[in-house]
Write a structure and sequence with these properties.
- It is a single chain.
- By secondary structure, the chain is of the alpha/beta class.
- Helix content is 50%, strand content 18%.
- The strands form two sheets. The protein has a six-stranded parallel beta sheet, with helices on both faces.
- Helix 11 packs across helix 12.
- About 5% of the residues have low confidence.
């Protein structure tokens, strides 16, 4: 029996080593995640590997979740029915946790994507990492810090959606004069809600702020630079990701790591072909 287990574990290791891309189980909590995020969820997962499991949990008899129907069909996501047995209790969490452990013990994936803004999944993320899984968390900026810290990576869905919508709006051609006049009344009504919009935008910010990131960058450069005081961009980025699971340059309006670091104005940058290095400014 012991011999079989050793062989089995070795074989699983060979299979994972041969796979070029990490296989993920994507588990979505429909109780507190909107269907408008589905494209971002799948796109972000695709950057890390392949989504072999795509499941979403909720009480599908509830009309509140009806907007998910077409989204699930279009993206081949399997809905898992979970009735709310007791008022005020979230049965969806338990169903997701049980399924996650079943998938873990099946040995068919190397990572999990837990999509929720609920801190109840903190212990699940910790347990999966203890078993060697790579855990990506996704949720809104209101997600409690303990769940964020329990993941290898964490993505703010509302910030990414806001950025994506802003880019789409900027890329559109200028509206014809007639359309502008027709939409003037609509825009004036929206302006009346300016205070609410401003408050909403203020809330769309990462929990790890620039001051914390600057301090970490200075510390990492001082500790990890070579004899010439240079540190490679990839190494600096990896170390920041380990310290701050929710670190993403897109949260701060940048598409590249090098442009984000240069905007802080604390490091000198040197680029030779595809190699980028940084050192402290004198």
């Amino acid at each position: 029996m012991i011999k079989y287990n050793l062989v089995g574990n070795l074989w699983k290791g060979v299979v994972y080593f041969m796979d070029k891309e990490l296989k993920f189980a994507v588990l979505i909590d429909a109780d507190n995640i909107s269907d408008k995020y589905v494209k971002i969820i799948l796109d972000e997962t695709a950057k890390n590997g392949i989504a072999t499991y795509k499941r979403i949990y909720g009480d599908w008899t509830n009309t509140r979740l009806v907007s998910w129907k077409n989204v699930l069909l279009d993206n081949s996501i399997t809905p898992i029915q979970q009735y709310g047995y007791t008022t005020g209790k979230n049965a969806t969490d338990s169903a997701m946790i049980i399924d996650a452990m079943d998938i873990l013990y099946s040995g068919t994936v190397g990572g999990f994507c837990i999509v929720s803004s609920d801190s109840d999944f903190t212990r699940l993320a910790m347990r999966l990492r203890e078993s060697g899984m790579y855990v990506v968390g996704m949720g809104e900026s209101k997600t409690p810090k303990p769940f964020i810290s329990a993941c290898n990576q964490f993505k703010y869905l509302d910030i990414l959606l806001s950025k994506e919508q802003g880019e789409e709006s900027a890329s559109k051609k200028e509206e014809p004069a007639a359309l502008k006049a027709a939409s003037k009344n609509i825009r004036s009504k929206k302006a009346a809600k300016g205070n609410d919009s401003k408050k909403e935008k203020e809330e769309l910010r990462p929990q790890t702020d620039l001051i914390m990131i600057k301090k970490a960058i200075i510390s990492l450069v001082e500790e990890g630079s070579d004899d010439d005081e240079w540190i490679h961009s990839s190494e600096l980025r990896n170390q920041l990701g380990k310290r701050f699971p929710d670190f993403d340059v897109r949260n701060f309006g940048h598409s590249k790591f090098s442009s984000f670091v240069n905007s802080l104005n604390i490091l000198d940058c040197e680029q030779e072909k595809n190699i980028v290095r940084f050192k402290m400014k004198k």
